[in-house]
Design goal:
By secondary structure, this protein is of the alpha+beta class. The chain has helices at residues 2-67, 70-81, 161-166, 211-224, and strands spanning 85-90, 97-101, 124-126, 138-142, 169-173, 178-190, 239-246, 252-260. It has an 8-stranded mixed β-barrel.
Length: 264
Amino acid sequence: MSKHLKKKGKHFKILKTRYKFIIFLLTIVIICAVIYIVKNLKDKEAVQEESELLNTVEIEKTEITEQKTERMLQVEKLRKENSDIVGWLEIDGTNVNYPVLQGEDNSYYMTHNYNKEENTYGSIFLDKDYDWNKPSSNLLIYGHNLQNGSMFHDILNYKEESYYKKHPIIRFTTENEDIEFEIISAFYSRVYYKSEKNVFRYYYFVDAKNEEEYNEFVKNAKEASLYDTGKTAKYGDRLITLSTCSYHTEDGRFVVVAKEKDKN
């Protein structure tokens, strides 16, 4: 009897040990299963987040494309034909409506059109020193004053304040931006001799070295203006300056300066 009980107790201990081992194995399996499920869910969430991010990027790209104006797309197309085309200049209600070129010097596009064909009318062109990588402070743009009314002939009309009031905005478009500039000054000038001191050589101002230099240019432009437009520029505002020949004096020039219009 005693021997039988001992065998039974030993058998019970073996069963108990096996039971504990099975429980332990089941626990390990359950833990592994939970870890796998959690990891799988996290992976799915990560994939979903990545997919949503890609969709967002695609939506943003689509929005950027949709936001491009017809003029921006036109500039983009023209640049494929001639990479020297940097933008398009337009003043609504005038004959100023041309592509803008930028060459390696300031003489080539005085005698060549936007197709690089020799032409006495030349092109509207941006000063060679303007750096698009910064970008520079002032889009200094030149054009011939032609008696047939083309190119920059209409710029001369800004000598009259009434004309300015009808055409206060200059529009300049690149393949990336469509910008409006408000005119702050219109004045007569000329190309000065090197020996002349204390004169406003507006044609040297493309990129301000500092705030003082920028403010000095704006101050001189405002003081030289034939009338007060009620507009001015502060350091950091992009400027555009249009320059053409004027026959009021030897080597005369007529100049219009504008600053980027506030977007708000």
